[in-house]
Amino acid sequence: MNDYIDLYCERIIPGLWSEPFNAISNISFFIAAGAIWQLARRQQKIPNGIWILIILAISIGIGSTLFHTFATEWASLLDVLPIMFFQFCFIWLYSRQVMKMKYIYSGSLIVVFYFASDYSKQFTNIFNGSLSYAPAFLFLLGLGIYHFQQQKRERFILLGAAGVFLLALLFRSLDKIVCPYFPIGTHLFWHLVNGVLLYLSARGLILNWSIKAKAD
What we know:
By secondary structure, this protein is an all-alpha fold. 70% of the residues lie in helices and 0% in strands. The chain has helices at residues 20-24, 27-43, 48-70, 73-98, 103-120, 134-149, 157-174, 187-215.
């Protein structure tokens, strides 16, 4: 669990501060968590599901900071698990609160997403491992199309989030390619852009959750 992991351009030697830009750029997730909280508290009483998303956004920031500081297997787990749980939680909440799916269908979506994500992890050598995020992108794109077609509040927001996600994946994929010309790499921009992604996704959920609540 303490084996050294070197995955990104910025890290050239072991050590706590061998990835300063990759570590510091995780501030984006803490800012996103704060922005989600500010938005939610302006709508009405914050639902428990939104609190969970806020806590998971903070956990993503903490886990990723630890991983880019210690670069070990245990830190890698703390990096990937909050991301996975945020995705599960978002799919569940959006399908239940906005799409108004039954429990069985929302659960089935998560199962399909889990197995698709697990399958895609085998392609670690393609696009610097970014292909493993293809299911997340496709799911978000699908939700974005639904959000637009159903004319939900801020109908373009999830499509915009999908576009932001695509930009983030580009930065993640280019990290090793630009390394000879840009020594710090582009992974830090993956973090910065993903903070925006978390906020936009949560915003699409919160604004339409509040509509459902008021209609009830």
